[in-house]
Amino acid sequence: MSEIDFMRRAIALSEESVETGGGPFGAVVVLDGRIVGEGVNRVVPDGDPTAHAEVVAIRDACRNLGAHVLEGAIVFTSCEPCPMCLAAIWWARVKEIVYGNDRAGAAAIGFDDQALYDEVARPLAARVLPLRRLAAEEAAEAFRLWADKPDKVRY
């Protein structure tokens, strides 16, 4: 399969998602020239605000590969990823993102992520969604346990 075939699959998934009650988003994860994971937007059908197509595709790929990272993979997605999906793709160690629609097109149909981009750029004290720190010393115990764990799997 070629890049255009992978993108066309992501687009087809986005159209299927609309037909089954999801948002107009689809994604595939490609590794070594083959699709290893697919996803559609499942936010409304699953009642899960994190079930964006890219996240669903990453979960599918990791399950299929028995891995928690996707080094060397490419995500083909029907739309430029939102900040959450971008972070998930980053943490999965994907090497490249290829997208169809852009964020301006998504905003034009009601999927505007600009507030999230703006929020992340603000200093913590200036954020719209308040952040408070509580029980920092107690929470640090898990970090100490992790730091001392000789057989930890880094990610």
Shape: globular
Mean pLDDT: 96
Strand order of the largest sheet: 2-1-3-4
From the alpha-carbon coordinates, what is the Rg to the nearest angstrom? 18 Å
Strand tally: 4
> What fraction of the residues are assigned to beta strands by DSSP?
15-25%
What separation lies between the terminal Cα atoms?
A: 30 Å
Instruction: Tally the helices.
Output: 7
Poorly predicted regions:
none
Q: How helical, in percent, are the residues? A: 40-55%
Structural class determined from secondary elements: alpha+beta
Please outline the major beta sheet: 4 strands, mixed
- The helix-strand sequence is HEEHHEHEHHH
Short characterization:
With 155 residues, the chain is of the alpha+beta class. The protein has helices at 3-19, 43-46, 53-65, 83-91, 103-108, 114-121, 136-148; strands at 26-31, 34-40, 74-79, 96-101.
Care to describe what's here?
The protein contains seven helices and four strands. The protein has a four-stranded mixed sheet with strand order 2-1-3-4. Strand 3, helix 4 and strand 4 form a beta-alpha-beta unit. The model has no long low-confidence stretch (mean pLDDT 96).
List keywords for this structure.
4-stranded mixed sheet; 4 strands; 155 residues; alpha+beta; 45% helix
Topology:
Elements: H1 3-19, E1 26-31, E2 34-40, H2 43-46, H3 53-65, E3 74-79, H4 83-91, E4 96-101, H5 103-108, H6 114-121, H7 136-148
Parallel strand pairs: 3-4
Antiparallel strand pairs: 1-2, 1-3
